[in-house]
Design goal:
The complex is a heterodimer. Chain A is mainly alpha-helical. Chain A has one domain. Helix content of chain A is 48%, strand content 3%. Chain B is built from 10 helices and 15 strands.
């Protein structure tokens, strides 16, 4: 059973930054991954293939990571590719800030308001 | 004794949380994961919900996720038991469900359910991990009852009027994985007993390329966890009307089963029965249109239900003889779409 692109990409088509044109650009894109670990590569590939981006076979640049970190880095990698392909953003998300949430890396913080 | 984790929502945020727990291996404390979701896998889910495939479309999410998570856990020798529950978190039983858990993970797609889970977790004095995502932005936060800022410290209350969901506003697929992984990281830290995990709030703006983890403090005027907190029980009225814009007879969001006739199944990926959410026939059809573009146009025109289509409530009553598209629905109701059949040779 296959699904039409209009269904598979329905949530992407709703985004004004993507629309049908962005969905088409993703479907015609081709990327080579440089993941931080095997699982990060797997996660990035799965997300990109769901967006119909063609993904080259990849080799892992690093050793295994904790699954929460590998999943995060893989999803970030895919997100950066989607943003770049669709022209939404060229610079990658700051990895260290995200890794820090997992308690596995240091990053920057900022103060947030709220009355005591 | 196993840690009992209640996962509310088996969608885009629930998928990474469940998969990461299952991949954690023997170092994960023995855990029983209860997956609470009454939805079915939909074709529009697949761009972001990696645990589901095309072959799963139409299947119950809780059962489908449970089967895949069990397989992953066995592969990685993770001590994770999985219990699927095909139900929604509703005010009537939220407190009981939360009390049966040691940690709540909330990854629902509507604010009413988020506030309901937050309130139930606080009243039951259970930690909770929240996550939310729509369009290009997302956030995640852990809450330790009584020590860290809760959801109502951040957002106070449900906004007036309807709030957009991913089904209406769209969402960029991998961002759901990013936020879900952040939530999973918070879950693991709570399970490891890190009390400081509730002190911050993480936000991601994937369009601007910003990710921030900021300290947040409890709000003295918080209606849930402040010194003069007034919220002491879970009433359906508190959650339903403002979020959905229409009154509900019970619960937060009602899922109504809708029987789809053969000619329209090309619009529902072959499914003969789908779920729509809403308190009236009109709201359910609007929701179905978001899930299955083009469907409502085949059923309705500008005047109402098309002349050659009948919509029956519970196999018995033509809604034309009730209140038409404004016919009120209650939990457990079902709709049947019945087009006129021509031919016969």
């Amino acid at each position: 059973m296959s699904l039409p692109r209009s269904v598979r990409a329905a949530r992407h088509r709703l985004l004004p930054e993507l629309g049908d044109a962005g969905v088409e650009r993703l479907a015609s894109a081709h990327v080579r991954l440089a993941p931080s670990s095997p699982l990060a590569g797997e996660i990035a590939r799965r997300f990109l293939e769901r967006a119909e981006v063609s993904v080259d076979e990849h080799g892992s640049a690093g050793p295994d990571e904790p699954p929460e970190l590998a999943y995060l880095r893989g999803a970030v990698l895919a997100l950066d590719h989607v943003a770049r392909i669709t022209g939404v953003r060229a610079e990658p998300l700051p990895r260290a800030d995200l890794d820090r949430v997992l308690g596995l890396a240091e990053g920057t913080t900022e103060r947030h308001g709220g009355s005591p | 004794m196993s840690a009992r984790v209640l996962l509310v929502g088996a969608g885009g945020l629930g998928c990474p949380v469940a998969e990461i727990l299952a991949r954690s291996g023997p170092t994960l404390p023995a855990t029983r994961l209860t997956i609470l979701d009454d939805d079915l896998v939909d074709g529009t889910n697949l761009h972001r919900q990696l645990l589901y495939d095309v072959a799963d479309v139409g299947a119950p999410k809780a059962d489908t996720m449970a089967a895949k998570v069990r397989w992953l856990a066995a592969t990685h020798r993770t001590p994770l038991a999985v219990v699927p529950v095909a139900a929604r978190l509703v005010p009537e039983d939220a407190l009981a469900r939360v009390r049966e858990s040691d940690l709540v993970v909330e990854g629902t797609d509507n604010l009413a359910s988020k506030f309901l889970a937050a309130d139930a977790a606080h009243l039951a004095q259970r930690p909770i991990v929240h996550a939310g995502v729509v369009r290009w932005t997302g956030w995640a936060k852990a809450v330790h009852p009584g020590t860290s800022a809760c959801l109502r410290c951040l957002f106070e209350d449900l906004p007036e009027g309807r709030v957009e969901t991913c089904a209406e506003a769209g969402v960029v697929g991998p961002l759901v994985g990013v936020v879900g992984a952040l939530a999973a990281g918070l879950v693991l830290r709570v399970l490891r007993g890190e009390a400081s995990v509730g002190a911050t709030w993480t936000r991601v703006d994937a369009k601007l390329g910003i990710a921030r983890t900021v300290p947040v403090r409890r709000r003295s005027g918080c209606s849930l966890c402040g010194p003069a907190a007034a919220l002491a029980e879970l009433s359906a009225e508190r959650y339903a009307p403002r979020c959905l814009g229409v009154p509900l007879s019970s619960g937060v969001v009602m899922s109504i089963k809708v029987r789809i006739p053969t000619p329209l199944r090309t619009l529902t990926q072959g499914q003969d029965e789908v779920l729509g959410e809403g308190a009236t026939v009109r709201a359910v059809l609007d929701d179905l249109e978001r899930r299955h573009p083009g469907l409502k146009d085949r059923i309705c025109d500008e005047k109402g239900v098309r002349r050659f289509v009948n919509v029956f409530l519970n196999e018995e009553e033509d809604i034309r003889f009730l209140d038409g598209l404004d016919t009120a629905l209650k939990a457990g109701d079902a709709l049947q779409i019945v087009p006129a059949i021509a031919g016969g040779r």
